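Write out this protein's structure.
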Amino acid sequence: MSFSKPNRSAATLTTTRVDPAPVSGICVTCVDGCEGPCEIGRSALKGREVIYPMPFGTTTSGSEKDYPVDFSHFNIQGTAVGAVGVEPDPDIATFPAVDTTTELGADSSIKLNFPVFTGAVGSTDIARINWEDMAIGAAISGVIVVAGENICGMDSKAEFQNGRIVKSPEMERRINAFKQWYDGTGGIIVQANVEDTKLGVPEYVIEKLGVEIFELKWGQGAKDIGGEVKLHSLERALELKERGYIVLPDPTNPAVQEAFKAGGITEFERHSRLGMVDEEAFHKSAEHLRSTGAKYVTLKTGAYRPADLARAIKYSSDAKIDLLTIDGAGGGTGMSPWRMMNEWGIPTVQLECLAHQMCERMAAKGAYIPPIAIAGGLSLEDHIHKAIALGAPYVKAICLGRAIMTAAMVGKTHGKLMAEKMELEGEDVSEGFVRLFAVGAELKERYGKDFDKIPAGAIGMYSYIDRMKQGLQQLMAGSRKFALKYINRDDLVCLTRDAADISGIPYVMDSDREEVDKILG
């Protein structure tokens, strides 16, 4: 059985003429004269352009590989006995009484109304276009939004002195969009990669723009290289090469310029450099950020091999990092090499189980364990419950990248249609939003006249989080756990022996065996 689907995918707008061979993905009869709708055929014409999901700038993509074990191999345990966290009284232990708030930070001072935050909303077009919806959505939901890497470097209006950023209207726009609606719950994180560090982005956003939470980035679950975007003009390609980015093909090459003008090349790629992790340099970076004024320092790591996961946990422990986000394979991105997304890295379930083992070892020695967030292909309340339980008591939050953006984009799309309809009929757009969104009346009561200023995408994001909150409350009430801190690994059961072997959580037929024997005598 093959877990992969090579040579054709909706992500790359490719297909095969007939059913393909399971390993190669090539049609079982590849015919001379075929126009080549598969990835191989498209690559014969457009080469490296077919490496990436399409169309760039208007899509997010997630791995389609069927991993042998995922979160569906676990079920949530329920019980008819007692209540943890509240009085076991049917009039008190109701599901709306479940507390879904969480705390992050070494001192637990970052408060979230719900245990989720966005993926890194960085320099891709789709991230830039949807930023205000997601930033405002995060602020009114009381969760965290993450401003990803390369925002300043990609800002065409940015100003530099001696190779260092002194002004970025785009970064200012992003931070201000969140701050205008921020009420003290949740927060905004700004990320940095190699180029950001060289350009002085950390110092700029902390000292000049007042950012309190700054994130060091080792990588993500969707790719094993630095960030990349596509560029559709020669001028833009030259500008970013001048700023120190890797741009392919080389826009300064006369032959490349000629090919672009002729249409043989239709786009350029901007790539970030690989970060080189070093323990001493990591600690110096964390100390530098704090000395610059960062109140909190966090780390984002990807689906790297187990030794790198151990480094992330150990270094974060020693440096008293305020949040460690671990991103497993199987997640999504705004732009990553498609085959890489599917064929590299440790899947989320296995990566989280390894992280739990490592945290247990360190906790047994009395070491500080930073609050941990899990990312990688998660989207709904059952995923949140399972991921928190699987990594308990160390996992405090879940990063939902594509899922939150999907809610914001759908809200934006329907909001635009409703606004056009209301304007055509000469009616108040805000009244249309009250009819469109289930949470519209609630938000209008909460914000009054300012409700008119909330983008439809932000309302869609708020509505999605509100749905997940009630769903999670119901799942937790069924387990008789009335606050997130009470969720533990005993709340899960494995449906397959493989899941039990990987996680150490009992197989369903072995679950509660000792208690069953005690009850039955």
